């Protein structure tokens, strides 16, 4: 055994001598290059030694990239007593909802992550000590000549219309930026303009879930005349795509804007655009009622998990949605109800598909003489049939009036372009 060890040691030293001899034949340039590499590696090792060992572990827990910049809301750190980390700032949000001269805006918002918060704050995050808070810089401008009542809500919608994080006008907001009123709560005088902040809380689970969705930022509607108790609510909600991180902003940049049917606005499903033509501009007039086909989009649809039951009739097959954007100008003498009745006729009458209704978006519900409206009319079909159909025609009507069908039960027809 000793002889064997001596043999191995001798062999090792022999090899070392041979390798050293071979190395001696390297060129001077090769030696200098090797030395540079060694020095660079040593420098890298020194830099790694200077960095905190915990940094890699912290990065694994971050769902989003951390943005550099100033946190503009000091009340979050003060009231939660937690560690506050900037996640994302959108300083050019530009969300605006104009309800007949009553203008609500969200100009800027910032999302921060709070860790190790106090127990009072933790109770607002389902008992968790970590969570996310968004601060929104908002304004209201009542440009009308009427005092109006309005309850401010700006929501982040997640899986569907029933899953959202709502805003708060007081929590974690410096006193000078809280929403206040001179007289009656919620009433904005004619010509009054106010600037204020809102905050929106999200648990860690809710915020991380945004990565799997197409979340929306919603400015609620619903204004009333403060001097008229019998005045009903006016104005629907306004819905915008919501950006929550720098990575997501880069991913969505340059993507085509999808039509605002409920598949999109209510997060019922995700859509992947197949084909669109958004400048059709074809109009038909029927006794003063003018309907214009502004455009059409064809998109592959994947229902969200929470909405799958709505699509059971399609047997789990791949789906295509055809969304037609209509504008309506009622200069007739009759009241016209929205949504309009619609059929998509394929291959010169080979089949007819009725508008879905449940995923259409339209406004307003009633159009009196002189009113205008809008309708995103949606037709669903199995993808295998979409691949077969070559031509499409839109049939609109008959139109529903105040007492049954209006305008002599007549219809309009439009050719709809396809691939």
Primary descriptors:
2 domains; Immunoglobulin-like; 419 residues; 9 helices; single chain; 6-stranded antiparallel beta sheet; alpha+beta
Shape: globular
Distance N to C terminus: 82 Å
Query: How many domains comprise the coordinates?
Result: 2
The major beta sheet can be summarized as:
6 strands, antiparallel
Give the fraction of residues assigned to helices: 10-25%
Poorly predicted tracts of residues? 1-64
β-strand percent reads 35-45%
Number of beta strands: 27
What integer value in Å does the Rg equal?
31 Å
Structural class: alpha+beta
Helices, by number, come to 9
The averaged pLDDT comes out at 85
Task: Describe this entry's structure for a reader.
The chain has about 425 residues and is α+β, with helices and mostly antiparallel strands. About 20% of the residues lie in helices and about 35% in strands. It has helices spanning about 1-25, 30-50, 55-60, 75-80, 120, 205-210, 245-250, 260-265, 385, and strands at about 85-90, 95-100, 100-115, 130-140, 150, 155, 165, 165-170, 185-190, 195-200, 215-220, 225, 240, 270-275, 280-285, 290-305, 320-330, 335, 340-345, 350-355, 360-365, 365, 370-380, 390-395, 400, 405, 410-415. Strands 1, 2, 3, 4, 8 and 10 form a 6-stranded antiparallel β-sheet that branches. Strands 14, 15, 16, 17, 21 and 23 form a 6-stranded antiparallel β-sheet that branches. The longest helix is centred in the N-terminal third of the chain and has 23 residues, at about 1-25.
């Amino acid at each position: 055994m000793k002889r064997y060890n001596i043999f191995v040691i001798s062999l090792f030293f022999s090899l070392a001598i041979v390798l050293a001899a071979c190395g001696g034949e390297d060129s001077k340039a090769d030696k200098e290059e090797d030395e540079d590499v060694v020095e660079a590696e040593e420098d890298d090792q020194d830099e790694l030694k200077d960095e905190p060992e915990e940094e890699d572990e912290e990065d694994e827990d971050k769902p989003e990239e951390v943005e550099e910049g100033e946190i503009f809301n000091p009340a979050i750190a003060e009231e939660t007593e937690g560690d506050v980390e900037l996640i994302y700032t959108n300083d050019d949000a530009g969300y605006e909802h104009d309800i007949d001269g009553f203008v609500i805006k969200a100009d800027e918002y910032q999302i921060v992550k709070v860790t190790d918060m106090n127990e009072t704050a933790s109770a607002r995050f389902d008992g968790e000590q970590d969570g996310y808070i968004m601060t929104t810089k908002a304004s209201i401008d009542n440009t009308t000549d009427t005092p109006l009542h309005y309850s401010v809500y700006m929501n982040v919608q997640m899986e569907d219309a029933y899953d959202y994080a709502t805003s708060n006008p007081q929590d974690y907001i410096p006193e000078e930026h809280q929403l206040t009123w001179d007289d009656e709560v919620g009433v904005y005088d004619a010509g009054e303009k106010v600037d204020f902040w809102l905050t929106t809380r999200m648990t860690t689970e809710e915020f991380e879930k945004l990565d799997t969705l197409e979340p929306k930022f919603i400015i609620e509607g619903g204004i009333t005349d403060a001097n008229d108790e019998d005045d009903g609510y006016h104005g629907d909600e306004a819905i915008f795509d919501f950006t929550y991180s720098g990575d997501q902003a880069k991913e969505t940049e340059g993507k085509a804007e999808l039509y605002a049917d409920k598949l999109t606005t209510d997060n019922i499903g995700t859509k992947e655009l197949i084909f669109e033509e958004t400048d059709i501009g074809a109009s038909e007039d029927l006794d003063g009622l003018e309907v214009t086909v502004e455009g059409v989009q064809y998109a592959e649809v994947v229902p969200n998990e929470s909405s799958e039951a709505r699509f059971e009739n399609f047997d789990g097959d791949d789906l295509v949605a055809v969304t037609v954007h209509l504008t309506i100008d009622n200069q007739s003498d009759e009241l016209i109800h929205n949504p309009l009745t619609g059929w998509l006729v394929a291959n010169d009458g080979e089949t007819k598909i009725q508008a879905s209704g449940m995923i259409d978006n339209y406004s307003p519900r009633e159009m009196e003489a002189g009113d205008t409206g809008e309708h995103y009319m949606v037709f669903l079909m199995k993808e295998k049939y979409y691949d077969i159909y070559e031509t499409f025609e839109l049939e609109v009507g008959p139109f529903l009036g105040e007492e049954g069908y209006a305008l002599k039960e007549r219809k309009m027809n439009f050719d709809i372009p396809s691939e």
